[in-house]
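Hi P.,

Sorry for the delay on this. The queue was packed all week, but I finally got your sequence through. Input first:
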Amino acid sequence: MDQSEIAEDLTSDIQKCMNWEAVRFDWNQARAFLATAEEGTLSAAARALGLTQPTLGRQVAALEAELGITLFARVGRSLSLTRSGIDLLEHFRAMGEAAGRISLAASGQSQAIEGQVRITATDMVATYHLPRMLTRLREVAPGIEIEIVASNEVRDLRRREADIAIRHVRPEQPDLIARRVAETTAHLYASSAYLDRRGRPHSPRDLADADFIGPEDVERFLHDLNALGLSLTRENFKLTTSSGTVILELVRRGLGISFVPRDWAELAPELECVLPELEPIPVPVWLVTHRELHTSRRIRLVFDLLAEALSGHLGTGDAPAGGGDTPPLASPQGREPAR
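Then the structure:
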């Protein structure tokens, strides 16, 4: 049997298995239902798909009419799946995944995912974490170009100052997508040489005359430090900088004490945790992007790879071997810590 005969037999078998008359809805209706179920509201689903809310609502209504069942029940301003909707959701998810695989295959697999993705991260993350993650990305999708914006300032993703941001505060803008991928902690650290020279403190009172290294906004930093039980003044801060990389190097050189995230300290074995009994300050790690995540395969690929790498590397913020915890002071006002 030659290839043409095999193909003809396969086509005949498919035609015999498929009941085309039973498939009365189209993919747009199925996609509208799936997006609404995942997003929770028609307005959110419409934004995700780039449609108007009335258009999306008509597609969902058309699907319900074709199937002869009710898929959603209104609960206030949101929607909840009916029992029929819940029963069908996994089938529609399988359709969505299959559609994604078809699109990927048609474009020549991930090697054909090309274009630029701009990532913004603090200088420490950009210096010590991103290179390892981007090595993996280069293997998976060599056609993607990455621009790294190393900055401790919060970039505006809505204005496309970046495509993906690694942040330590959750964004408040409703049109951004944020995923909490990890949590680390920061602690007071100093070099062994500094502590050998100045003595190892046993209580917060012992730090009254210590040298501290802090961010540019020292007054705000002081307020947060003293809330932990310390009694410091502006005179304790002989060195300030907006760079997390510089803070780490100054602490390593024995020039003072500072709050250092746990994952930084792992890079510097000469550092010791100071007063480990102090209450830890959690530092969440958020991965943030704009709504193009739903339509751009290259942004989705980079976003998912970063999420996996960050969650695997930073973990959940367990205390260091020396005890205690105290992260870069993510201020109560939600400003980025200097990382």
